Amino acid sequence: MKAFQAIPLVPGVLGQGFVPAKSNMVTRAIDSLQANSAAPGQGTAHLAEEKAAMLSGPHGVVPAGCFGDELEINDYPTVARQKISHRDPLVSIEEMTGAKVQVKGQHFLPGAKMPEGAKKLYVEIVGPTTIAVAKAKHEVHKMMEALAIRTLNIPGLKNAMGGGRYDPATGK
Fold it and tell me: Which residues form the ATP-dependent RNA helicase PRP5/DDX46/KHDC4 KH domain (predicted)?
């Protein structure tokens, strides 16, 4: 089996020619994967999963240098929970605040018995500063409240609030 090498320099540029670089991160990763694979064609999916688990660390732990918070959304109406789970509102909040927003956990009905180790549905917010995290949490809370109010079906309220999709810029 021929080993792949990443080429760090373009041959002939500035008279340096071809310089194999064993210290290149890509080359080291390829060499590592090739050395660890037991048989050709077996695949390296298990190695990738182990590496990803190692890099991500334990679940629920905020990476070093970041700040995190959670907002439980389990008890909000179904429509509000579904809309916050879509990509568009989460991306708009992330762009506005600079914090990463993810929906995690599992929905449990009120009064239902929760299995051991399970968490109710919540939004995890991780950001570079406490201000970014607080702003993102405020935006998620504001969005959930606005969506929850829309589900009440109060006559005239939907038109007064502007009906339709939630716009994080206006908060409606």
Answer: 70-139
Name the helix (H) or strand (E) containing 122. strand 122-127
Decide: 72 and 106 in contact? Cβ < 8 Å.
no
Q: What angle do CA 51, 56, 60 make, to 5 degrees?
A: 145
Instruction: Compute the average pLDDT of residues 43-49.
Output: 61
Distance CA 100, CA 84 (A): 14
Q: How many residues does the chain have?
A: 172
- Tokens 């935006």 correspond to 139
In CATH terms, 67-153 corresponds, of 3.10.20.30, 3.30.1370.10, 3.90.850.10, 3.50.30.20, to 3.30.1370.10
